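quick one before i forget lol
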Amino acid sequence: MLIRIDARAPEPLYQQVRDQIVAGIATGELEPGQALPSVRALASDLGINLHTVNKAYALLRDEGYVLMRGRAGAVIAEPAEDGQAQLSEAAQRAMEDDLFKLALAYRARGGGCEGFLECASAQAARAYGALPSSC
């Protein structure tokens, strides 16, 4: 998987790394059990500080997307691996909170409920590579 970062983007570098790894998992480009590059190797490849990559990996671990295997490094977690249920529930709540914040932001800009649902449906279809009715 090729990770690209943009130093001029408004998102922090660690968030860009995290988001691209999550996208790789979602699209099947990264599969459960697959090892990620070491923190040092990825930082070197991207030309960024190793603490930035470490922060991205820690966030991915805390969200349940990766498991840290000591010297073996970070590996992609199984979606419903035993011992991850509590992390998955916390991650689900966090995603729902993020979705709620997006709905509030949409409403604060004058958007209606129907418009938000249409937008959310279109983005879900984009994420799943499907037509909105099949999501």
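fyi Residues 3 and 62 are 20 Å apart (CA to CA).
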